[in-house]
Protein backbone atom coordinates (compact mmCIF):
# COMPACT_ATOMS: atom_id res chain seq x y z
CA UNK A 1 0.00 0.00 0.00
CA UNK A 2 1.01 3.55 -0.69
CA UNK A 3 -0.49 6.44 1.22
CA UNK A 4 -0.59 9.82 -0.48
CA UNK A 5 -1.35 13.14 1.20
CA UNK A 6 -1.68 16.34 -0.80
CA UNK A 7 -1.20 19.83 0.59
CA UNK A 8 -0.69 23.37 -0.61
CA UNK A 9 -4.06 24.16 -2.10
CA UNK A 10 -5.91 27.37 -1.41
CA UNK A 11 -7.44 30.53 -2.81
CA UNK A 12 -5.37 32.65 -5.19
CA UNK A 13 -6.07 35.45 -7.62
CA UNK A 14 -5.74 34.94 -11.34
CA UNK A 15 -2.13 35.27 -12.40
CA UNK A 16 -0.87 34.03 -9.06
CA UNK A 17 1.01 30.89 -8.11
CA UNK A 18 0.62 27.88 -5.86
CA UNK A 19 2.83 24.91 -5.14
CA UNK A 20 1.14 21.63 -4.38
CA UNK A 21 2.93 18.86 -2.53
CA UNK A 22 2.12 15.19 -2.26
CA UNK A 23 3.84 13.20 0.46
CA UNK A 24 4.03 9.44 0.01
CA UNK A 25 4.54 6.71 2.55
CA UNK A 26 4.33 2.96 2.76
CA UNK A 27 6.47 1.73 -0.12
CA UNK A 28 9.64 2.71 -1.97
CA UNK A 29 8.67 6.00 -3.55
CA UNK A 30 11.15 5.73 -6.41
CA UNK A 31 9.38 2.61 -7.66
CA UNK A 32 6.38 4.70 -8.70
CA UNK A 33 5.56 6.96 -11.58
CA UNK A 34 3.54 9.84 -10.21
CA UNK A 35 0.71 11.87 -11.64
CA UNK A 36 -1.42 14.89 -10.85
CA UNK A 37 -5.07 14.99 -11.82
CA UNK A 38 -7.84 17.49 -11.19
CA UNK A 39 -11.61 17.55 -11.03
CA UNK A 40 -13.59 20.72 -11.51
CA UNK A 41 -17.18 21.04 -10.30
CA UNK A 42 -19.53 19.16 -12.59
CA UNK A 43 -16.71 17.74 -14.68
CA UNK A 44 -14.86 14.47 -14.89
CA UNK A 45 -11.45 14.09 -13.38
CA UNK A 46 -8.70 14.90 -15.89
CA UNK A 47 -4.98 14.36 -16.25
CA UNK A 48 -2.73 17.32 -15.49
CA UNK A 49 0.88 16.11 -15.35
CA UNK A 50 3.04 13.05 -14.74
CA UNK A 51 6.63 12.31 -13.89
CA UNK A 52 8.63 9.12 -14.17
CA UNK A 53 10.42 7.36 -11.33
CA UNK A 54 13.72 9.22 -11.58
CA UNK A 55 12.39 12.41 -13.21
CA UNK A 56 13.73 11.49 -16.64
CA UNK A 57 10.34 12.00 -18.26
CA UNK A 58 7.53 14.46 -17.69
CA UNK A 59 4.30 15.10 -19.53
CA UNK A 60 1.56 17.72 -19.31
CA UNK A 61 -1.90 18.27 -20.60
CA UNK A 62 -1.92 21.01 -23.22
CA UNK A 63 -3.85 23.52 -21.13
CA UNK A 64 -1.11 23.73 -18.48
CA UNK A 65 2.03 23.50 -20.60
CA UNK A 66 4.34 26.40 -19.91
CA UNK A 67 2.51 27.29 -16.68
CA UNK A 68 2.76 24.16 -14.49
CA UNK A 69 5.87 22.20 -13.55
CA UNK A 70 5.90 18.74 -12.01
CA UNK A 71 8.91 17.61 -10.01
CA UNK A 72 9.80 15.09 -7.35
CA UNK A 73 12.30 14.55 -4.56
CA UNK A 74 12.76 10.84 -3.99
CA UNK A 75 14.79 11.48 -0.84
CA UNK A 76 11.76 13.26 0.63
CA UNK A 77 9.16 10.91 -0.87
CA UNK A 78 7.37 13.91 -2.30
CA UNK A 79 6.06 15.03 -5.67
CA UNK A 80 5.31 18.67 -6.40
CA UNK A 81 3.20 20.65 -8.80
CA UNK A 82 4.30 24.24 -9.25
CA UNK A 83 1.42 26.20 -10.75
CA UNK A 84 2.11 29.64 -12.17
CA UNK A 85 -0.03 32.10 -14.12
CA UNK A 86 -3.12 30.51 -12.67
CA UNK A 87 -6.45 30.99 -14.39
CA UNK A 88 -10.00 30.68 -13.06
CA UNK A 89 -10.41 27.56 -15.20
CA UNK A 90 -7.69 25.90 -13.11
CA UNK A 91 -10.12 25.82 -10.19
CA UNK A 92 -10.53 22.20 -9.14
CA UNK A 93 -9.71 19.58 -6.57
CA UNK A 94 -6.20 18.37 -7.34
CA UNK A 95 -5.22 14.76 -6.72
CA UNK A 96 -1.89 13.02 -6.81
CA UNK A 97 -1.67 9.40 -7.84
CA UNK A 98 0.92 6.65 -8.02
CA UNK A 99 1.50 3.71 -10.32
CA UNK A 100 4.27 1.14 -10.56
CA UNK A 101 2.72 -0.68 -13.52
CA UNK A 102 2.31 1.96 -16.20
CA UNK A 103 3.52 5.17 -17.82
CA UNK A 104 0.17 6.66 -18.69
CA UNK A 105 -1.99 9.79 -18.46
CA UNK A 106 -5.07 7.63 -17.92
CA UNK A 107 -6.38 7.57 -14.38
CA UNK A 108 -7.24 3.90 -14.73
CA UNK A 109 -3.51 3.19 -14.77
CA UNK A 110 -2.94 4.51 -11.25
CA UNK A 111 -3.31 2.27 -8.23
CA UNK A 112 -3.08 4.76 -5.40
CA UNK A 113 -4.71 8.14 -4.87
CA UNK A 114 -4.62 10.94 -2.36
CA UNK A 115 -7.67 12.62 -0.91
CA UNK A 116 -7.25 15.80 -2.93
CA UNK A 117 -6.60 19.45 -2.21
CA UNK A 118 -8.81 22.32 -3.33
CA UNK A 119 -7.41 25.02 -5.60
CA UNK A 120 -9.60 28.04 -6.23
CA UNK A 121 -8.54 30.79 -8.61
CA UNK A 122 -10.54 34.01 -8.46
CA UNK A 123 -10.87 36.37 -11.41
Key descriptive features of the protein:
123 residues, mainly beta, seven-stranded mixed beta sheet, four-stranded antiparallel beta sheet, 50% strand, globular
Structure in words:
With 123 residues, the protein is an all-beta fold. The strands form 2 sheets. Strands 2, 4, 5, 6, 9, 10 and 11 form a 7-stranded mixed beta sheet that branches. Strands 1-3-8-7 form a 4-stranded antiparallel beta sheet, with no helix packed on it. A hairpin with a 6-residue loop joins strand 5 and strand 6.
Q: Count of helical segments?
A: 0
Radius of gyration of CA atoms, rounded to a whole number: 13 Å
> What is the averaged pLDDT score?
97
Distance between the termini: 40 Å
Shape: globular
Q: Approximately how much beta-strand content do the residues carry?
A: over 45%
- Unreliable parts: none
**H-E string:** EEEEEEEEEEE
Fraction of residues in helices?
under 10%
**What profile does the largest beta sheet have?**
7 strands, mixed
Task: Itemize the secondary structure elements and their pairings.
Layout: E1 3-7, E2 10-13, E3 18-25, E4 33-39, E5 46-51, E6 58-60, E7 68-73, E8 78-83, E9 92-99, E10 112-113, E11 117-122
Parallel strand pairs: 2-11
Antiparallel strand pairs: 1-3, 3-8, 4-5, 4-9, 5-6, 7-8, 9-10, 9-11
Amino acid sequence: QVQLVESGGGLVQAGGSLRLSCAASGRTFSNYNMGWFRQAPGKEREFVARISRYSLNTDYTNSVKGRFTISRDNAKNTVYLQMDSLKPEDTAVYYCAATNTAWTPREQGYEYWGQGTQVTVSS
